[in-house]
Every structure is written in C-alpha cells, then in structure tokens.
Amino acid sequence: MERYRPQRILVEKSVKNLPLTQTVIRRLEGIPIEFIKQLKPLPVEPIQDLWLDGQKTLLLCRNKGRFFELCPGTKNYLCCLYKILNFATNCYLNCTYCILQAYLNNPFMVLYTNTNEMFKELDEVLNQHPKTLYRIGTGEYTDSLILDHLTSFTQLVIPYFATKGNAFLELKTKADIIENLEGLEHGGKTIVSWSLNAEPIIRSEEKNACSLDNRIKAAYQCQKWGYKSGFHFDPLIYYPGWEDDYKKVVEKLFRTIDPASLCWISLGCFRFIPKLKPIIKKRYPESRILYQEFIRGLDGKMRYFKPIRIEMYTKMAEWIKSYDSKMFIYLCMESKEVWEKSLGFSPLSNQELNGWLNTQCTS
Amino acid sequence: MDLQTKRIYLKTIDLKDKTFLLSYGYDLNPLKQSIKQVGLLNPPILRKKSAATYQIICGYKRVLVLKELGISSLTSAILPSKTGDRENLLLSLYDNTSHREFNPIEKSMAIIKLQNYYPEEKIVDGFLPVLKLQPHITQLKAFRPLCRLEREIKDALLEGKISEHTAIQLSQMDRASRRALGKFLIALRLSVSKQAEILEYVLEIAIRENLPIEKLIHTSEMRSILDDEKLNQPQKVEAIRKHLRERRYPQLSKKEREFTRNLKQLKLHPYINLRPPPFFEGNHYHLNLCFKNLDGLKQNLQKLESLLKNHSLRTIIES
Fold this sequence. Notes:
The structure holds two protein chains of two kinds.
Chain A: E1 8-12, H1 19-27, E2 33-36, H2 51-54, E3 57-61, E4 68-70, E5 83-85, E6 88-89, H3 100-103, E7 109-112, H4 115-128, E8 134-137, H5 148-151, H6 153-162, E9 167-173, E10 190-195, H7 199-205, H8 212-224, E11 228-236, H9 242-256, E12 262-269, E13 271-272, H10 276-283, E14 294-296, E15 302-304, H11 306-323, E16 329-331, H12 336-343, H13 350-362
Parallel strand pairs in A: 1-2, 1-3, 3-7, 5-8, 8-9, 9-10, 10-11, 11-12, 12-16
Antiparallel strand pairs in A: 4-5, 6-7, 13-15, 14-15
Helix pairs in contact in A: 8-9, 9-11, 11-12
Chain B: E1 4-9, H1 29-38, E2 45-48, E3 54-58, H2 60-68, E4 73-79, H3 85-97, H4 104-114, H5 120-127, H6 137-143, H7 151-158, H8 164-171, H9 175-188, H10 192-208, H11 213-217, H12 220-227, H13 233-248, H14 250-266, E5 272-275, E6 286-289, H15 294-307, H16 311-318
Parallel strand pairs in B: 2-4
Antiparallel strand pairs in B: 1-4, 2-3, 5-6
C-alpha cells in the first residue's frame, strides 16, 4: 500500500507552533508549505470534482468545533451508540463506495493538530459521566491509521485511553500502518479493527487500501503486541459468486487470527444515501456496485432488498461460527427483524446493543 | 465595427459555408411572411471570402428566405476581410442571443465553435451564462456533444419527444446503443418522468447483465410487447415499464407477485384494501376500509374478523 505523501501543506498560522504540526512538518521536509490565516472559500465546483487534486493537499488546522460527538447512526434501525473522536477528515484510500464523497465539504486531507484541546474536551466528557462506558472510534471521517506514519497520533491517543477507566478506543482501518503501535502502554483499552472485504471487491472498489493478506497480517502483529482486535465486514457487497469469495475471507481470517483476542465481528451490507449514486457513477464509471437490487430503506438510504441482506448475514454468520461458535457478531444499522432472521436473536434497543458491545470490551 | 453597406448578388454568397451558423431547427415561414410583407428590415452581415464570394456572418436564415423567394440581390453589411474569425463568431453569437434563447442543439453548436478560440474555463465563466446555462464545467460537458447527435434524435429533442436529460444521456453512448435506444424512446412517446424511469432501467439492466443496449431493446419480450396489436400506446408503455422493472428488480418483483397471489386468495371485499410495507422493508401493513355508514363499517369489521382466521393472511404477514 502506498503511503500518503502530500504535494502541498497548508498550515493555519494559529497551529503553526503546536507539537503535532511541528511533527508533521518535520516528517514532510521538502514539501512546499503555505501558512494561511484561514482557509479561503473553495471554488463553486461540486466538491467531488476537486476531490483527487484536493487530497494532494494536507491541511493542518484547528478543530474549532467539537472533537467528541455521537455517531449519527441512522433512524428506524438498531445502532450501537458509538462515539466519535474527530481528529482528521478525508481519506486518500478513495474506496468507490465511501460516504465521505457525499459528506465532506472540503476536498483536502485535514488534520486537526490542536490535540491539547482535544484531550481537554475528552477529559471533560469522561469525567462528567464516570460510570458511563464509552466506545470511541477515530475511523468515522477518515481511516484511523492512514496518516499515522506522518502524525504518530496513535502514540498520543493510545496511552491516553490506557489511563481512562471508562473509555475504550477503537481504531478502524484498511491500512497496515501499525509500526507506531508497537511497545505502547495500551492497557487493553485500544481495539484495533480492520475492515475486511472479498478480494475481488478489494481489487475493484478498495484499490488504494492494503491487500486482505496484509490487513490480516497487521492484525496478527497487533494481537502479538497484546491489542484486542475487531473485524468489520462492512460494506458487504452482493454480486454473483459473493459466497465463495467472502467464505474465503473468513477462512483466511481464522487461519491466522486467534479468536480469543477478538472483541467482535460486525456485518453491514452496502447502503448509501441517494445523492452518493451520481457521485459514484461519475467518479467510478467502471464500478458495478450500484446495480444490484436496492430499495429505499426506512432511513431514506438505499439498501439491498431485505431477503438479500438476510441471506448475506445468515451465511456470513454461519461461516464465522463454524470457526468459533461463541464469536460475538453484530449487525450495523439493521432492523430487529433482520437480526432475528439472520442471527436468531436481536437486541431490544440501541441501549441493549451498546451494553453488549461494552461487555465485549471489558471481558 | 467598420461596416460598409453594399448591394450584392445573392449568387455570390456561399450558402454552404456554415462557419458562423448558430441556428438549428428553425422554421423559415414567419420570416418569409415578414419579408414578403415589409421587405428585408435588417441586412445580413457578410465578409468577403474570395474575389467572387461572400461568407455569411449573421443572417443565414434571411439569405435562405430571399433565395426561396427568388430574389437575386440584397443590401448587405460587409465586414472588412481582415476581420478575425473569433470576432465574427462573437458577432453571430450576440446577434442571436440578443433577441432569442438558443435551443439545446444551438447551445451545443455555440460551445463547439467557441472552443476553437477559447479555453474551457473562459467558456464556462464567460459564455455559458450568455447561453442561459449554469457556469459550470459539467454543463459544458453535458451540452457540448448534443449537436453531434443523429438528426432524428436532435429533432425529437426539439419537438419534445425526448427530454434534455435523455438527449444528454444518449449523447454519451456509443453509436449503436444511442441509435437503438433513441429510436425506441422516440417511438414510445413517453412523459418526461416515464422516460427517465425507462431510460434508467435500460441502462442499469445493460450493466447488470453485461448486455449491449441494442440487444436488450430487441429481445423477443420487448418486441412482442411493441408488436402486440391488441395493446394501445399507453398499454404498451406500461407493459414495457413493467417488464423492465421486473428485469431490473427480479427478487422484489417476485415478492410483489407472491403478495398479489396471496392477496387474491384472501378474496377481500372490494371495500377492503391491504397494502404491504413499501418495498417490504418495514413491518407496517396498511389496511383501508371503505364504508358509507355505521352498518357498512360493522359489516366490514365482521369480514375482517373472519379474515383473521384465514391462513393466507398469516402467510402474507409472516412471510
């Protein structure tokens, strides 16, 4: 996997002297830097037209809003009450199906370097509700590890969570940039998770991400360093012959990974907001992922027709359980009916699902 | 602008030279009537092309009408021969846009001709608004190929038989697909929304089944619908739409058929209507009762009561 190296760095003057800014600048010596008071308004073109060029610019700036937020989830389906730590936005992996294409209003790779304020905000949240257990992820608006070779952000955040009694950190990635995780005091409080997919899908839709083998190899390495891990089969993509390919992924996974160190495996079928369709069609005309049987779901997102989802979840769960019958599997943004028909049980509420996942973290 | 008014013979004008022509799909009759009644009000603008011929810069239609009326000479405004092509194109463009809006084919012609002299960014910012288009590169790219469509498709667009959206989609296809699909859509005479729906089905089925569009359109199922003499035009359109939808969404369509079959077995009274959740996604069924008075309501409720014992209802709700 090719690691990110921008062609230009934009630095907001207000963060110029912050330690993380300095670290990144030092590691990108030789790349042109421009110091700006603030970002100028962007041209009127749709953001997707500027996307690939925009990602060649790394913007180091202050997060003027909140770092900590609730995962938006989705209405009318069960969600796990995940929390998000928003330390960076955008992702140069450019997976064809990525929601960020329709979500972000800025085409640059953005890193918020005011980490002092981030930790202050986290302290406030975690101290305010000491009895609440938080599962916090950094992989919502970016991939958790794709900038880590430039930022070593994990070396700040993993030791921080190790000291917090009521919070777990989940790093979600499709990368193998894990060298900074070695030797850190993680205290069992960081879960490193990989998003997995069938190999033909990785080749056609996740072209810039690392291979399946390297993802599994990286997970194995993290396990050896004592980290808990998780895997997300999300998005599961339906196509003729999907069964053989996904079954092979499950086989490969359990050939290498010790199930005992796994917190969870999640399953989520490909779903998208309608405005993503023309974006994918335009940016990736060769992609075929939009042409299966999608219907408008109860949350307005396009989803596979329910029997297709149930079939995919049922088979995936069966293959996974054949390796470890006690493996904790959960569905992402699905209805109780789909849970029951696929897995044979369902949480009664988002709170109950949250509780199950929290138990997985602590056990 | 240094124009010289001069009377010249019509035969000296090169009518085949359409370098600066920005009109398409015009009707000469109103202009013919006007010239017949009051004569030529505005002289065409010409440029000397060679020792013996002139090139039309503005006024192609006027010259055509004069020719049709058998007039041999006309008063013209002659530009100096050194006037540049870019300047002449602008003259033609603004002469037209000052008094009328271009149709989509003319917009395309203008974009293509402007590209000989200006970069895309300049056309987007400087000329698309003149053509009443949004100043955006996507508009330039969408409209640019329209004038290269087959005449049948261009005319269908101007006659409202196909929508601008459809024409743009057709212009992005290979020739064989475009001709087949264009002919098919023109023949169906669809509303804009049905046209968009059928177009989307065709394009997506072709991708799903890895099938050339022309083959998809000429399948025996499609042919048998189109050739069915018992069906009128709206019935053909509905049958085509239904056939394509079933092919695009086979599992959903199968489920819908099953639902309809089971519903029939319930033998519901016409005043009672049961609808499934949209796309069978949620789990809320809708039951409508129609009644005139309390007795009617009571009777319907009794029918519903007995319906609860019907096994088919269980099949419908729990499948």
